[in-house]
């Protein structure tokens, strides 16, 4: 997901006026701390090994920069990959090299100074510079970097990340005298969600709410892929280079070894998991039960609530159902041409991607599919490995819809009205793995309509607008469900104005599960911010959603 730029300034307007936030924090608001949870690929990784790189003058030594050192990437790509890739099944390091996340603010400010420009390289640098100019104390801004290659359960198992995060909040309270404001970007929001669920097991139920009130004053969810991100599918099947000087195949090879590779898969808002997790203090035994189920809306909806099918893929049709077991489960409309020996095109919804149906269906055509299915649901043949799959995670199944976190103040901020990918067409490339798939077409959402790569209008279920160029609107806007039945809506220009262009609608009715579409005007030459605010439905809390028009890099 994209890194941040100076668009974060708008968030700090709220930080500077923190006294307007809800809750009963009585005291000096200068005592608040800001805790930053960065997004995917937004933390530097450093070598924790000595690796001799043949045919290259550059070796890897302890504390050398790995992510991101583009000089070593260009001169010793095979060595660099050894330091980046993990075992695809148990998430352990390569036997010749291992990397660990850097610490402190420097770990998230700039990934490779001087080489790559744009959203990947300069992540939080300008944001922190603005904080310094604003007069914020050095100990008031705390970064909590993490190894973004790992699944959430592995983050805790290997690095005790969530234990450390809990201590960070407690230390900030003791040091500054006040609670913290959480700024999470992209995957960082998923990390924070998992932390809140993990915390329930570490704190007595009666103390959980009090701990949150004492330590977290507000949560800013920036560019949060609340229902997943479509580009994760592209990275999994054909590779996403992040702007690096590597081939898509190499990027895919690396990405698919990460346990986090499917943390942001798109999933259905109609499917949930019931988790019952009990800790028995005598002997420390843990027992849990899972029940993944979808409601009737999933059966009635055509695309799991998304604008279109996530994946349309051509596969060979001459191998029969014996080696393609999912064919019998696929609607007959997907099987046209099979009898004639032509390639079969299969379509998969968000649910069928996230529950493993898709990966199971192509296991005879792609060597990565079995591993990805294992990450989602443990295969019997791999059950001896110590690894919790996503659907079997006793803390949380991350591929299920979010409920509003039990926090006083929540601000959900994202961009809209940009051309955003929402579906793909794949076909065999005729090349060996990892380049065995090519994208033959892309479906985009553009301001409330769906278009193919060639510009043709596509039928489907588009939303009221489009996403932020990376995450579709359907996923970003899920936090509107955290608003209550009465919502105040304000639309104002992003540029300087005299107030005459501000539009305000009060007490607009909102049905849970449905989008809120304001009946307000937009000038085609003007960029706006639309605020949706609900501070009355739930006493002592405030929920706000900010939609920023076009070209906003947050």
Automatic annotation (TrEMBL):
Pfam families given in the database record: LCAT (PF02450)
Protein origin, superkingdom: Eukaryota
Keywords noted in UniProt: Signal
Keyword Signal carried by entry: yes
RNA-binding is among the record's keywords: no
Signal peptide per UniProt: 1-23
UniProt protein name: Phospholipid--sterol O-acyltransferase isoform X3
């Amino acid at each position: 997901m994209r890194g941040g730029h100076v668009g974060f300034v708008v968030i700090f307007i709220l930080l500077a006026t923190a006294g307007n936030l809800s809750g009963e924090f009585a005291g000096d608001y200068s005592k608040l701390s800001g805790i930053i949870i960065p997004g995917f690929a937004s933390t530097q990784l450093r070598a924790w090994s000595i690796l001799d790189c043949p045919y290259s003058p550059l070796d890897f030594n302890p504390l050398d920069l790995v992510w991101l050192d583009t000089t070593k990437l260009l001169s010793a790509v095979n060595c660099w990959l050894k330091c980046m890739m993990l075992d695809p099944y148990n998430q352990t390091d390569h036997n010749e090299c291992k990397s660990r996340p850097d610490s402190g603010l420097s770990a998230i400010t700039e990934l490779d100074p001087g080489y790559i420009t744009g959203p990947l390289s300069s992540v939080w640098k300008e944001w922190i510079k603005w904080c310094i100019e604003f007069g914020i104390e050095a100990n008031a801004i705390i970064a909590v970097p993490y190894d973004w290659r790992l699944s959430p359960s592995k983050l805790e198992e290997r690095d005790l990340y969530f234990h450390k995060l809990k201590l960070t909040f407690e230390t900030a309270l003791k040091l500054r005298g006040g609670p913290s404001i959480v700024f999470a970007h992209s995957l960082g929001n998923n990390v924070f969600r998992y932390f809140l669920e993990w915390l329930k097991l570490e704190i007595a139920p009666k103390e959980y709410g009090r701990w949150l009130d004492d330590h977290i004053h507000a949560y800013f969810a920036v560019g949060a892929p609340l229902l997943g991100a479509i580009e994760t599918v592209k990275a999994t099947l054909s590779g996403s280079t992040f702007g690096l000087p590597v081939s898509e195949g190499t990027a895919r090879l690396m990405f698919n070894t990460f346990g986090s590779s499917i943390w942001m898969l798109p999933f259905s808002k109609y499917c949930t998991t019931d988790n019952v997790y009990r800790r028995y203090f005598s002997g420390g035994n843990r027992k849990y039960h899972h029940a993944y189920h979808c409601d009737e809306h999933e059966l009635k909806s055509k695309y799991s609530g998304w604008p279109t099918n996530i994946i349309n893929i051509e596969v060979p049709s001459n191998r029969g159902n014996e080696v393609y077991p999912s064919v019998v489960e696929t609607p007959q409309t997907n099987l046209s041409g099979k009898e004639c020996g032509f390639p079969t095109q299969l379509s998969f919804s968000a649910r069928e991607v996230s529950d493993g149906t898709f990966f199971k269906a192509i296991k005879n055509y792609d060597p990565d599919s079995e591993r990805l299915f294992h990450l989602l649901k443990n295969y019997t043949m791999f059950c001896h490995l110590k690894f919790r799959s996503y659907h079997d995670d006793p803390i949380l199944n991350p591929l299920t819809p979010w409920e509003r976190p039990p926090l006083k103040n929540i601000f959900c901020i994202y961009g809209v009205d940009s051309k955003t990918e929402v579906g793909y067409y794949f076909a065999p490339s005729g090349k060996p793995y990892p380049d065995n798939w090519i994208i033959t077409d892309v479906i985009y959402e553009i301001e409330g309509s769906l278009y193919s790569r060639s510009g043709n209008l596509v039928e489907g279920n588009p939303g009221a607008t489009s996403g932020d160029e990376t995450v579709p609107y359907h996923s970003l806007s899920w936090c509107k469900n955290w608003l209550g039945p009465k919502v105040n809506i304000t639309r104002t220009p992003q540029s300087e104005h005299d107030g005459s262009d501000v539009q305000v609608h009060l007490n607009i009715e909102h049905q849970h599960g449905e989008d809120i579409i304001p009946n307000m005007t937009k000038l085609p030459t003007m960029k706006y911010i639309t605020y949706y605010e609900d501070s009355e439905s739930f006493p002592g809390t405030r929920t706000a959603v900010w939609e920023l028009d076009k070209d906003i890099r947050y």
